[in-house]
């Protein structure tokens, strides 16, 4: 019995421009995998497979080969590789050093009927699963693509159709939900404020995100919670420091033209941008995502554990290798060390594949109480 924590990387390049894709993605991932080895924890790489297909189509073999080598090595070292989809790559066009794409393609379900959403999702999910299994089963014959995280957390709109496609394409786990998250940008619309109130639950194509189901895909959310005043003060203090001297990425640079689903800003005037940043800073919502102050991450984790005192909960922590800074690496180490100090007996670290192998769909969740880690 444990609170299972699943460290994960959203493994993707910038959408508009990358000065060097290997520097932007492969090198910082090597760095993070070395840190994980040091900490003795497995990591799951959620791979933006569609970008790889698009890079291969335009003949950029060096980047794709470097990625495929890295994914094989990761699995050989006991890490996990799973599926992340950013559907706008389907129609992205290379213009010199930049990619252009339609913002309307950002979400699987945007501008599509329910049946179109299902067809598109199912086709992409099946192709992604097959691609990763062809790539990784030669390294580990038991490898299976079983988990999915939507790009930009975008399981909406069309959640029912996407969930039905996940089930039909053979996925066991979804990890797109960030409980309590509300996000409206020019391209993205996420509202997880009314997601089922449980640590984990099944989702099916009938209820979608509205209610827990008896069977279907098992939700392993990105951990999130409302944080207290002390954690808020740390967050605001750190933001002030970073405004003065923003930490530089350790490796490559690029940009996504403010399209990131998790980004604070989405264009507009500087006044609008500051107002948005102010709202985010003042919001007591926080997720298990870097960059974030390690004490805030710890507060989220402890709030999560206190709220869900059942046996075997699963939640994920998310890091983007792109834009990785030395500060983020230090913060990850600090968070991990502090978590073990405070809650070591209650926490186990695992992968999505391992979580899937322990699942028996439809099984009633055990309710034996765990000692809360306060
Ligand atoms: Zn992503």
Written description of the protein model:
With 374 residues, the chain is an alpha/beta fold. 39% of the residues lie in helices and 17% in strands. The longest helix has 23 residues, at 114-136. It is built from ten helices and 17 strands. The model is unreliable at 258-267 and 361-372 (pLDDT under 50). The chain has one domain: Alpha-Beta Barrel (TIM Barrel). Strands 1, 3, 4, 7, 8, 11, 12, 16 and 17 form a nine-stranded mixed beta sheet that branches. The protein has a two-stranded antiparallel sheet with strand order 2-14. A two-stranded antiparallel ribbon has the order 5-6. It has helices at residues 21-39, 49-57, 61-76, 114-136, 159-168, 229-244, 270-282, 294-307, 326-343, 352-358, and strands spanning 3-11, 17-18, 43-48, 80-85, 93-95, 98-100, 147-150, 173-174, 182-184, 189-191, 201-203, 217-219, 224-226, 254-255, 285-287, 313-319, 347-349. The radius of gyration is 19 Å and the shape is globular. The structure holds zinc ion (ZN). Zinc ion (ZN) binds at residues 10, 12, 48, 84, 86, 151. Residues 10, 12, 48, 84, 86, 151 line the site of zinc ion.
Helix content: 25-40%
Count of helix runs: 10
CATH topological fold name: TIM Barrel
Low-confidence stretches: 258-267, 361-372
Instruction: Identify the bound ligands.
Output: zinc ion
Approximate shape: globular
Helix and strand pattern = EEHEHHEEEHEHEEEEEEHEHEHEHEH
Arithmetic mean pLDDT? 89
- Strand count: 17
Q: In CATH, what is the class? A: Alpha Beta
Radius of gyration: 19 Å
Task: Give the strand content.
Answer: 15-25%
N- to C-terminal distance: 17 Å
CATH superfamily placement: Glycoside hydrolase/deacetylase
């Amino acid at each position: 019995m444990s609170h299972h924590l699943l460290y994960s990387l959203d493994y993707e390049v910038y959408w508009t421009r990358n000065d060097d894709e290997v520097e932007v993605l492969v090198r910082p991932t090597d760095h993070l995998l070395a840190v994980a080895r040091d900490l003795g924890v497995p990591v799951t790489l959620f791979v933006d497979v569609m970008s790889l297909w698009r890079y291969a189509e335009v003949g950029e073999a060096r980047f794709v080969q470097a990625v495929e080598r890295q994914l094989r090595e990761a699995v050989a070292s006991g890490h996990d590789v799973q599926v992340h989809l950013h559907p706008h790559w389907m129609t992205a066009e290379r213009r010199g050093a930049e990619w252009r794409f339609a913002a309307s393609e950002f979400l699987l379900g945007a501008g599509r009927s329910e049946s179109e959403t299902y067809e598109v999702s199912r086709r992409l999910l099946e192709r992604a699963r097959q691609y990763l299994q062809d790539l990784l089963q030669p390294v580990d014959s038991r490898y299976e693509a079983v988990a999915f995280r939507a790009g930009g957390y975008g399981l909406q709109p069309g959640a029912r159709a996407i969930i039905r496609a996940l089930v039909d394409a053979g996925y066991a786990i979804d990890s797109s939900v960030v409980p309590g998250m509300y996000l409206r940008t020019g391209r993205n619309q996420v509202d997880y404020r009314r997601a089922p109130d449980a640590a984990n639950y099944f989702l099916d194509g009938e209820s979608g995100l509205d209610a827990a189901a008896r069977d279907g895909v098992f939700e392993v959310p990105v951990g999130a919670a409302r944080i207290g005043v002390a954690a808020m003060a740390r967050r605001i203090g750190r933001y002030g420091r970073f405004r003065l001297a923003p930490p530089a990425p350790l490796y490559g640079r690029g940009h996504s033209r403010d399209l990131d689903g998790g980004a604070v800003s989405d264009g507009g005037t500087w006044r609008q941008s500051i107002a948005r940043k102010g709202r985010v800073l003042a919001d007591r919502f926080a997720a298990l995502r870097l960059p974030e102050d390690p004490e805030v991450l710890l507060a989220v984790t402890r709030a999560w554990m206190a709220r869900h005192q059942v046996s075997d909960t699963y939640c994920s922590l998310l890091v983007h290798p792109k834009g990785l800074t030395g500060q983020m690496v230090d913060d990850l180490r600090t968070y991990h060390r502090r978590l073990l100090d405070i809650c070591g007996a209650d926490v186990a670290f695992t992968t999505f594949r391992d979580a899937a192998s322990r699942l028996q769909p439809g099984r009633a969740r055990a309710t034996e109480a765990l000692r809360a880690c306060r």
